[in-house]
Amino acid sequence: MSVKIVKVENNRQLKRFVSFVNELYKGNPYFVPELFADAMNTLRKDRNAAFEFCDADYFLAYKDGKLAGRIAVIVNNKANEVWGLKAARFGWVDFIDDASVVDALFAAAEAWARERGLTELQGPLGFTDLDREGMLIEGFDRLGTMATIYNHPYYPKHLERLGYVKDVDWVEFLLKVPAEKWPKAERVSAIVERKYGLSVVHCKSRSQLAKRYGNALFELVNECYAGLYGFSPLSKRQIDQLIKTYLPVIDLRLLSLVVDKEDNLVALGVSIYSLSDALRKSGGKLFPFGWWHLAKALFFKHPKRLDFLLVAVKPEYQGKGAFAMIFNDLLGNYIDMGFVDVESNPELEDNKKVQTQWDDFEKEQHKRRRAFKKVLV
Fold first, then answer.
1. Which of 137, 227, 235, 273 sits most deeply, having the most CB atoms within 10 A of its CB?
2. Extended beta strands in the chain, E state
């Protein structure tokens, strides 16, 4: 039978779109599902603030009457304006190892882009840089993270067959937590504090964090990430959503904030407990018992691995030791809390400013992922 492509038109179909990936990877020991409710909120046009400047449609592929693939097609108009592109993005792309299914999915995505006068298709990317992005091309035998995509090794082979080529790569590192704090970091931190008048600040509560630095956190991300691949500035509504969603679950011991003499935020480092095992046990769903696995990891018996979500340093303080202040602050807590290792999460392969910061760690570059692109003619 030929492959049938169905556009997602209602909530029932969207639920099938989100849940398909759990069926495809059932029993895979490395796959980490998205939290189902978060994925639904991201993809719903009435829930995601990115739809202020994005448009998107979602497609399902059926073969022999059985769901066999999915793909989201997105245009981020703000990013296109910033980068001078006429590009569509594909994301949330998953499929069985069948050329006819893959061909039909990407034919639908490419037609969608052409209908809007767009001249290239790139991905996997989300609505913004804070969504999951990049197709895994190395590290298929390593456990995924909450913030990253896992995919079968046959995925990139199909994209290359269809004429998609490398746009950018990201690399990921597994870092060993040292047994004790580094004297070098302590010395550098003290020098930077004296020379530039910077200091590490700690909030007593999450509500204080949100009130005092909530907006500043994401405004700093906007400033520091402006030159990174595909980035588009977060809007006020997006920032409000992020503050409401993520700040209430941050462990303040795993967050480092550096401020100047006027209490302006100049650098930050955000890490969280690895939720990979909890998400696997929950199947990405909170009910009926998934909430317990997540609550256990967050509040009762935390895992021995951390995910380092992001670091941001104001351009004028980059290369001046602000990063050392962040890690001098965090390492003590990492050690005291018994963490063994840290996932760096994706970094652009040419972002040497970030990668050189890991030089003092015992580390392994254990994953690589890629954004592909294709010029549409």
1. 273
2. 4-7, 54-63, 66-76, 87-95, 120-123, 135-138, 165-176, 199-201, 255-259, 265-273, 305-313, 341-343, 347-348, 363-375
DSSP bridge partners of 373: 122, 165
Cα distance between residue 332 and residue 174, in whole Å = 19
The residue whose two tokens read 């004790």 is 180
Tokens of 123: 């991905």
Q: What are phi and psi of 333, to 5 degrees?
A: -70, -40
- As a whole number of angstroms, the distance between CA 85 and CA 78 comes to 10
Helix axes 206-224, 236-246, angle to 10 degrees: 140
Q: How far apart are CA 337 and CA 290, in angstroms?
A: 25
* Whole-number Cα distances in Å, 35 to 135, 156, 279, 283: 19, 25, 7, 8
- Write down the pTM of the prediction: 0.92
N-terminal to C-terminal alpha carbon distance within the chain? 29
CB 261 within 8 A of CB 352: no
d(CA 227, CA 221): 11
d(CA 270, CA 247): 11
Q: What is the pLDDT of residues 70-104, one digit of tens each?
A: 999 999 999 999 999 999 999 999 999 999 999 99
Please state, as a whole number, how many other Cβ atoms lie within 10 Å of the Cβ of residue 44. Answer: 12
How many angstroms from the chain centroid is the CA of residue 73? 18
Bridge partners of 201, per DSSP, are 257
Q: Which residue has the higher pLDDT, 355 or 1?
A: 355
CA–CA gap between residue 361 and residue 357 (Å, rounded)? 9
Q: Of 65, 71, 146, 84, give the one whose Cα is nearest residue 112.
A: 71
* Confidence check: pLDDT of 1 > 70: no
Identify the residue whose tokens are 């392969």.
Answer: 349
Separation of alpha carbons 46 and 2, rounded Å: 34
Q: If we measure between CA atoms, which residue out of 366, 358, 371 comes closest to residue 134?
A: 371
Q: Record the tokens describing residue 375, joined without a space.
A: 């010029």
Strand, helix or coil for residue 58: strand
Alpha carbon of residue 352 to chain centroid: 19
Tens-place pLDDT, residues 277-289: 889 988 888 767 6
CA angle 61, 67, 71 (to 5 degrees): 40
